[in-house]
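Case study 2.
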Amino acid sequence: MPQSVRKSALRRRDPAHEEERQELLRSLSRTRTLINQAYGGFNSASDSDLIESYVFEINSLQARYNYLLRRVKELEGAT
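Prediction:
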């Protein structure tokens, strides 16, 4: 798709899709913050059970982040 067509398509984005996209971007940002906090906890933990819980938390948050990123890309492709 030529650049000029792509830009005009972005300006005409469906308001419902744009609202959902903005919410997904906010969720991505929050999830990124939570991942960073979990890594901080992991790096300072010394108890093996606590370390294991941080590993599960990080994996879960990364899965959520990947899902949200995929949804944003799907919405951007739908416009």
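Confidence is low (pLDDT under 50) at residues 4-8.
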